[in-house]
Automatic annotation (TrEMBL), chains A, B:
GO term, biological process aspect, one: prolyl-tRNA aminoacylation
Organism per entry: Neobittarella massiliensis (ex Bilen et al. 2018)
Name of the protein this chain belongs to: Proline--tRNA ligase
HAMAP family: Pro_tRNA_synth_type1
Signal peptide (UniProt feature, chain positions): none
Domain of life: Bacteria
Alphabetized GO MF terms: aminoacyl-tRNA deacylase activity; ATP binding; catalytic activity, acting on a protein; proline-tRNA ligase activity; transferase activity
Domain-related comment: Consists of three domains: the N-terminal catalytic domain, the editing domain and the C-terminal anticodon-binding domain.
Keyword annotations of the record: Aminoacyl-tRNA synthetase, ATP-binding, Cytoplasm, Ligase, Nucleotide-binding, Protein biosynthesis
Entry's localization field: Cytoplasm
GO cellular component assignments: cytosol
Primary location: cytoplasm
Length: 579, 579
């Protein structure tokens, strides 16, 4: 392809809306344009990368016996009523009516559609196990799309669904798929990916893993043990907390203290003269299923983990908003003494177990209690609802403190069990003729997010550094002063020669300065660059450089094409060697 | 792939809902399943065919310098407000609100999105001409989806948009694209495709063509001249009508006739004793833009063409429903005498020009006029609004009668002009620096409909006969009595050998009778079949047959693989030779 014809302007200015390197470079390099919040058009360079990523995914799915299908984007409500998710999933599920008044939705995931298909096609145990997958457009009505292709509303996703006759078989397949995912990231040239245990969330099911690309700008946080390799995302991570040491003398009476203006924790600690960890604070949620408040107490130096609360009470939760006290809660001064625990759903974090002489709210404005003894609370009121911090010790080996890292989720896999097959009445006839419910797994990976993550992983200030396996083009030819007959002839010849050899070549045929040409080449990030210029031609050479700067050499004109082929093979080998 | 693992049940029963061969065979063969009205899941065999069709389309689009991009399915209302189509397009455009209350839509075509992209990326004449295309999911809220994959709500479509600096340049490119389309159909093995002039409809613009696959079960009709090759779809086809011969004596007075019970044309003709063509009938439409009635008169033996009326009055129309006469129209007895032509929009078909002694309604129940002279009407009231019939003569050569054929539209191309670029304010700087509006073309082709059309074109009672270029698999191996060691070893070996040679092989490894295996093979329609059976092995041969029955031979075991390769090459050559 000739660069003069390529659609997609490139420019120097950093787009003001872009926080992430990938977001900014994708816009600057003419890879994508926003059409609406979180909705983008991909231009030719990005479409080419996406197609290559899709091919890698397809090959790896086929390798683990996946069968490609195509399910619809628009689904009828009835399917999601069967699973119960039409009601239970929030507003990120886009619902609408078609012209005949039927309730429809834009699918953001396809468990229901997969079961709808499989239940008529796999009625005998002989068909099992099997996996079906698709690479397809999804829509998720995000309230706050952000980060360019990292969190969008419309996206291309590979989603796969496997069906099994036993949990053991699911587990075996689940780890085959885990390995396929690792191969996908490696083949796409994405390093720094780790799998972590995760919450199955709206998917339901038991074991789930997220594949996290570790990067400072990632919006997810994961807990890692540097000693034993324990890894979990924040939603499920646990840690062993150092106990509060000296809590003072036993047997002190509860004492009411006037604390005017001490609604914040640090002002309260200063006022009373205690460390944060001797304080107990409350967070109030609204339980989505009932609308009622849930009060969660946690040690003053820790934070409440919403996902853990969600799992604990079996319902989605949201921050309580009507803090006018009409629900009988004295916001800002909540404490367990005198709180009606039959009226409210109340939990205490494990960090509070065994504590006494604690300071907490007195359910009265500007008032706290001192010396509260939590050892009197019933044991079943305690649960792990706090966020892991780096002061905690690994729950697996107990040998080192947890390290928190940021990351971007680039894939997830779930052991769903029978959640969907059971509610949707899917059965198969077993060997003995009895009807059984299949066990399912599901496996997702977003194409656009993976593309953006590769840029996060591999770029400099001037543009992406594409791994050769997914680069939009493998070779970039710069013809400097193409008006020069010799330059034009050689560059045109190389373009033809390399294209004939099967390389994807982007040929900068424009009558522009070397500076402008090179800036564009950097933004397009092609792995191998061939520079044809009058100065080099005088010496009978061309310059060959790699975008990653590992190679920069002058090569005799007649060897140029074969040297490019060598370098391309070496770059690909570097990727293959990681497998 | 082993057939025992393939997802998608096949069965004998014809599905009751299927009228078309393609619809029935796609269901019987395990190619697709309906999820909602006009919304299907494609199973592996159909997904494989679709992918091959997409690849052919992609190659042909790249061959005419197309650049592949990916635009969103979900678009914001604002874009369609700019073009005016948010208001003007009917309910087939699915509109909805996102969670933030923004008006959005599910795109059924992408002129607006293409201009939105191009207007920031092609600001200089140097970029022109260019063409961008995508292969992507579309949604069209059809009131009555039908015919399996022929008329669906959700579908995969290749849509392309070209941009030019002059009409001449557009026209040149338009015919390049026309040729690319012809190559696509040929490469997909679809015969009997002709291009016909068509109405540009909701697209706007001037010249447009539809590619029609001629087939008896097609729901579209096209007019063809067997003498000169004139072709047009019914919406734009014209014809030269034989004039009514003897209309009787001149100068007769208009005469009122009581015609009780003669609301239908044939009863009226019998009652008065005239042929249909001496009668004039009226059809009343509602003009969508204003809600007012439009009265169209046509000769009694002809029908009104709604598309022609639409173009004539510049608005969508629908059949008038409130026939209670409250609008001042005497339905069933409408005639021009005494009709207030200032109050109503009234047109007369060209077939009526020059007629006299005509019978028509008297705008009074059970009453008609005789001897009405239409020569008194102003010339501008006449227009071509009738449907072409086989009694008409070709308007191009005048040498033969029109033939009407049924067909399925498998593609369309439009010379849009500046309809979208102008309303959406797209400009480029010309050589002299002045701002100009680009001229556009657009080019669509539906993947699923093409797939179904190939089946319509190429099937027998037992299943599709896939052209080798798009067949889900090229080779089908039947192992008959695979329990036999020799059979198994040879079949397994051939499966491996042919797969290694790069063939896509479907291997029927099931312990089922030859009859069941062969029925499945027919439904899957693989071009080349290799049958390994104990009986054949005794003679040291396998049977090789083509699905199209052109070849059926016994081949020595050791030559089987090379013979398959030969046949595959010959089948492909047969397709290539049509190019």
């Amino acid at each position: 392809m000739k660069l003069s014809a390529l659609i997609g302007e490139r420019f120097k200015e950093w787009p003001s809306e872009a926080q992430l390197a990938s977001h900014g470079l994708l816009i600057r390099g003419g890879y994508m344009r926003q059409v609406a919040g979180g909705i983008y058009t991909l231009l030719p360079p990005a479409k080419r990368v996406a197609a290559k990523i899709e091919n890698i995914i397809r090959q790896e799915m086929d390798r683990i016996d996946g069968q490609e299908i195509l399910m619809p984007v628009v689904l009828p409500r009835e399917l999601w009523d069967e699973s119960g998710r039409y009601e239970s999933v929030g507003r990120e599920l886009l619902r609408f009516r078609d012209r005949t008044g039927h309730d429809m939705l834009l699918a953001m995931t396809h468990e229901e559609a997969a079961v709808h298909l499989a239940r008529t096609e796999a009625k005998s145990y002989l068909k099992y196990p099997f996996m079906i997958y698709q690479i397809q457009t999804k829509y998720r009505d995000e309230a706050r799309s952000r980060g360019g292709l990292i969190r969008v509303r419309e996206f291309t996703m590979k989603d796969a669904y496997s069906f099994h006759t036993s949990w053991e078989d699911l587990e075996k397949y689940y780890y085959r798929c885990h390995e396929a995912y690792e191969r996908i990231y490696k083949r796409a040239g994405l390093g720094h990916v780790v799998s972590v245990k995760s919450d199955s969330g709206m998917m339901g099911g038991a074991i789930a893993h997220e594949f996290m690309f570790l990067c400072d700008d990632g919006e997810d946080t994961i807990a890692i043990c540097p000693a034993c390799g324990y890894r979990a995302n924040m939603e499920v991570a646990t840690g062993i907390l150092d106990l509060v040491g000296d809590m003072g003398p036993e047997g002190l009476d509860v004492e009411e203290v006037a604390t005017p203006g001490c609604k914040e924790i640090d002002s309260l600690c200063k006022f009373i003269g205690i460390p944060e960890k001797m304080l107990m604070k409350a967070v109030v949620f609204t339980k989505e299923t009932t609308g009622t408040p849930v009060i969660v107490f946690v040690r003053g130096d820790l934070e409440v983990n919403e996902a853990k609360v969600r799992r604990l009470i079996g319902s989605d939760v949201s921050a309580r908003v009507d803090e006018d006290g009409s629900d009988g809660i004295c916001y800002g001064y909540i404490g367990p003494v005198g709180l009606d625990m039959d009226k409210f759903e109340v939990y205490f974090d494990e960090s509070l177990r065994g504590m006494y002489n604690v300071v907490c709210g007195a359910n009265k404005v500007d008032t706290h209690y001192k010396n509260v003894d939590l050892r009197q609370l019933p044991a079943e009121k305690f649960a792990d609802v706090s966020k892991v911090t780096e002061q905690m010790v690994c729950p697996q080996c107990g040998k080192a403190h947890i390290t928190l890292k940021n990351g971007i989720e680039v894939g997830n896999i779930f052991q769903l069990g029978d959640k969907y097959s059971k509610t949707m009445g899917m059965t198969y006839a077993d060997k003995d003729g009895s009807l059984k419910t299949p066990i399912m797994g599901c496996y997702g990976i977003g194409v656009g997010r993976l593309l953006a993550s590769v840029i996060e992983d591999s770029h400099d200030d001037y543009g992406p550094i594409w791994p050769i396996s997914i680069a939009p083009w493998q070779v970039h030819i710069n013809a400097i002063k193409r008006a020069d007959d010799q330059v034009r002839q050689l560059a045109d010849g190389l373009y033809e020669q390399l294209s004939d050899k099967g390389f994807e070549v982007l040929y900068d045929d424009r009558d522009l300065s070397a500076g402008v040409q090179f800036a564009d080449a950097d933004l397009l990030g092609t792995p191998i660059k061939v520079i044809v210029s009058p100065r080099n031609l005088k010496d009978g050479v061309v310059e060959i450089k790699t975008r990653d700067k590992s190679i920069a050499e002058k090569v005799p004109v007649e060897n140029a094409a074969s040297r490019v082929a060598e370098i391309a093979a070496a770059l690909q080998k570097r990727i293959d060697d990681t497998l």
